[in-house]
């Protein structure tokens, strides 16, 4: 499949989602000196059915069936009726193996390359006679999208395009720091009709975990961002980072000197207890339940 075909598959597999109201208190105030707004992807810019990249308990129960559907829609022939649960078991073990090897190399929070993972899984199923078909890299990429967007439906938060466009029109740089896989930027393009760079994000300020082999809460992703920001003549204090997770987003961003905003607009992506926000390391500059509030809080 080429990129346009992958985009069409994501559009077919995804469905509109609405935020689940939280009733969470907000903290809105004017912030001066911001020249760049950077975002987390899952649970912040994009509603996730499971609140983040990955799966929850309900998805785990349904995943064997979705695994079979993904195989069939990727063109594989199935030889054994238990290929669903068996495939999920192999997948989980393969991820563990990739993570362990990375940790053995000294990476504290590894982000496995999901294409390499799916290649290993599909090849093992092929060698054991569970499936028949093409186990090339391109087929693993196709299968990854067929499976991912069954287990984790995503959709842009309300008015995302308008919010981002408004910030861009004010002359602010836009960036992303996100746990992700190869399909994450493709999903952005599928659901907003433009790639992040075409939409107006500074391509130098797009930090995707799958490209680094490391994921949040590692501060290495944030260090890569601040280094890139300095090359763009931006100081950390001039960046507002917006995320939904106090431990993966707020704490490490603050440690690197970024200003922070906690998004609490969707119950599925809340990752803290009310008392946690009393701790200095988790306390953001802003708490918003609608991304449009960011624009209102930035002083000209």
Automatic annotation (TrEMBL):
<dbReference type="InterPro" id="IPR051828">
    <property type="entry name" value="HAD-like_hydrolase_domain"/>
</dbReference>
<keyword id="KW-0378">Hydrolase</keyword>
<dbReference type="InterPro" id="IPR023214">
    <property type="entry name" value="HAD_sf"/>
</dbReference>
<dbReference type="Pfam" id="PF00702">
    <property type="entry name" value="Hydrolase"/>
</dbReference>
<protein>
    <submittedName>
        <fullName>Putative hydrolase of the HAD superfamily</fullName>
    </submittedName>
</protein>
<dbReference type="GO" id="GO:0016787">
    <property type="term" value="F:hydrolase activity"/>
</dbReference>
<dbReference type="InterPro" id="IPR036412">
    <property type="entry name" value="HAD-like_sf"/>
</dbReference>
């Amino acid at each position: 499949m080429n990129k346009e075909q992958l985009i069409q598959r994501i559009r077919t597999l995804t469905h509109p989602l609405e935020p689940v109201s939280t009733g969470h208190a907000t903290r809105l105030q004017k912030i001066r000196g911001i020249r760049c707004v950077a975002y987390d992807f899952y649970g912040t810019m994009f509603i996730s059915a499971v609140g983040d990249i990955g799966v929850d308990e309900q998805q785990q129960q349904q995943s064997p069936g979705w695994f079979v559907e993904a195989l069939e829609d990727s063109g594989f022939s199935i030889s054994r009726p238990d290929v669903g649960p068996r495939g999920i078991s192999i997948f989980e073990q393969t991820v563990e193996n990739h993570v362990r090897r990375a940790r053995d190399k000294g990476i504290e929070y590894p982000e496995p390359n999901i294409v390499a993972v799916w290649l290993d899984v599909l090849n093992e199923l092929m060698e054991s006679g569970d499936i028949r078909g093409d186990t090339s890299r391109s087929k693993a990429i196709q299968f990854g999208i067929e499976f991912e967007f069954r287990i984790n439906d995503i959709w842009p938060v309300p008015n995302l395009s308008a919010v981002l466009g408004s910030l861009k029109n004010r002359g602010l740089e836009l960036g992303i720091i996100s746990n992700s896989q190869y399909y994450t930027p493709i999903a952005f393009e599928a659901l907003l009709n433009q790639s992040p760079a075409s939409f107006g994000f500074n391509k130098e300020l797009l930090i995707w975990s799958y490209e680094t082999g490391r994921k949040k809460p590692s501060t290495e992703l944030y260090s890569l961002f601040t280094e890139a920001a300095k090359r763009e003549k931006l100081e950390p204090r001039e960046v507002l980072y917006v995320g939904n997770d106090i431990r993966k987003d707020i704490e490490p961003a603050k440690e690197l000197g970024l200003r922070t905003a906690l998004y609490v607009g969707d119950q599925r992506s809340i990752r803290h207890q009310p008392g946690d926000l009393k701790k200095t390391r988790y306390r953001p500059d802003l708490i918003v339940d609608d991304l449009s509030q960011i624009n209102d809080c930035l002083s000209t």
